[in-house]
Amino acid sequence: MKIFIDNGHGQFTAGKRSPDGEFREAFYNREIAKRIVTDLQDRGYDAELLVPEDDDIPLKERCLRVNKWCLLHGKQNAICISIHVNAQGNGSQWTKASGWSIYTSKGNTAADSLANCIAEAAKKYLPDMRLRADYSDGDIDFEEEFYILKHTMPACVLSENGFMTNEKECRWLQTREAKQAIADLHVEGIIEYLEQVGSISCQSR
Question: Domain span at residue 178?
Answer without folding.
Answer: 2-204
